[in-house]
Design brief:
With 412 residues, the chain is mainly alpha-helical. Helices cover 52% and strands 6% of the residues. It has one domain (33-388): ADP-ribosylglycohydrolase fold (Orthogonal Bundle), CATH 1.10.4080.
């Protein structure tokens, strides 16, 4: 408890320092390690997303009454409310499709991969806008839906996400669609955060953008840093001290140190930060502020444990698939795909040798391939990461066994 309180005080003192003032360090990572961590990100976010689906948007004022410790544990016991549509039957969805179905927690990252493959990491709004117009026609909501409609009318990002133009600027879309930038820039936290901000401003503004930068920086650092409290400190560098998200994160740090039960902290978050200045509708339920704070709460209480992280972030309620997806990917980066619990990453896949049949099934983004090997997605992200690594002054050498090793100038 004292450690967390002291940590929060230290964070308050450190966040104001400029990123440029940090002395650069160097760390090594092999190509195999890089790909394993990227695979952990992709598989972790898929698992987290599907883990939270049954409870999405159902538990608002109060959390799920039990800790959701395993998929569908309570479904047949009749104790929990779950969604009765396809979200409550993801095991069947995966098996019927022989792969992982796309969703807004990862399909915009799938699009981003294609966009960056085509135009490079210095992609512009003028280049991404036509791709959004072409590929994002359905299965998209709130701020992104509003932004794409504006693009079709001739508007150009970042005006499409600005407060004065987008009534949903405060939702989660920026933070659930930009984690990929942390994988594009392993160890390069500022570039990762800048990329997340660039894409995030297509649909969002203010604290929704800072949450995206916060997570992207943590993803980037997680390639080399495993301590969850240190990752939070790194992420906090991207949040202005006078922003409500910064205050909220410090509140959650303090409350989690003071309250052994996460449900007590959840109540404090809900009472103080649940959209009191907005109508109680979908736009409030998917607000980035309370949802993001509940995700940080889960990270603190679970202390890096994958199962506990998914359980708490799902049980916390609100838009309860988003935080498990983001945090599942983060924990996946820390330990790599090999570290993910077999009973979780294989729970949807009956008899297959690889999680999700090693297949991503795109059924939401028109014009992009329907079936893609997850291993190919991982390899393509790693190729882009190598370009970013070398462009930022890193060194590459080849081991006697032919494996590449990167010496990266890290920024944390």
């Amino acid at each position: 408890m004292r450690t967390r309180i002291l940590y929060c005080i230290i964070s308050l003192l450190l966040v104001g320092s400029a990123v440029e003032a940090q002395s650069p360090d160097t760390k090594e990572i092999t190509r195999n390690e890089l790909e394993n961590k990227i695979a952990g990100y992709w598989l972790g976010q898929l698992t987290g997303d599907y883990f939270g689906f049954p409870f999405e948007l159902l538990y608002i004022e109060d959390p799920v009454p039990v800790d959701v410790d395993k998929f569908y544990t309570q479904r047949n016991k009749g104790k929990l409310r779950i969604n009765k549509d396809w979200r409550g039957n993801m095991d069947h969805q995966v098996r019927n499709r022989r792969g992982a179905p796309s969703d807004d927690d990862h399909d915009l990252e799938f699009l981003t991969l294609y966009a960056v493959d085509k135009y490079g990491l210095d992609i512009t709004y003028e280049e991404i806008a036509p791709m959004l117009d072409k590929h994002v026609k359905r299965m998209v909501w709130v701020s992104t839906e509003h932004a794409v409609k504006a693009i079709r009318k001739g508007a150009m990002p970042p005006s499409t996400g600005a407060k004065e133009n987008n009534p949903y600027w405060h939702d989660l879309m920026a933070s659930i669609s930009t984690e990929i930038w942390g994988s594009f820039y392993p160890g390069m936290t500022q570039e990762a955060a800048d990329g997340a901000e660039w894409f995030g401003r297509i649909s969002n503004d203010d604290y929704a953008i800072y949450l995206a930068k916060f997570y992207a920086a943590m993803y980037s650092a997680a390639f080399f840093e495993s301590d969850h409290e240190e990752l939070i400190r790194i992420g906090l560098k991207q949040v202005p001290k006078d922003n409500v998200l910064y205050q909220g994160i410090c509140d959650v740090q303090r409350w989690s140190a003071e309250n052994p039960d996460w449900r007590d902290t959840r109540k404090l978050i809900y009472d103080k930060y649940y959209s009191k200045d907005k109508p109680k509708d979908l736009s409030s339920i998917v607000d980035a502020l309370p949802n993001g704070l509940m995700g940080i709460m889960a990270l603190l209480y679970a202390e890096g444990d994958f199962k506990k992280t998914l359980s708490i972030s799902t049980s916390a309620g609100l838009d309860s698939d988003n935080q498990p997806a983001t945090l599942g990917g983060l924990i996946g980066v820390i330990g790599g795909a090999d570290s993910l619990p077999e009973d979780y990453k294989m729970v949807f896949t009956d008899g297959a040798k690889s999680p999700f049949y090693d297949t991503y099934v795109n059924h939401t983004r028109e014009g992009l391939p329907e079936r893609t090997k997850i291993s190919d997605i991982v390899s393509r992200i790693a190729d882009i990461a190598e370009k970013a690594i070398l462009a930022n002054g890193a060194k590459k050498r080849i081991k006697p066994n032919g494996e590449a090793v990167y010496t990266i100038k890290t920024e944390f």
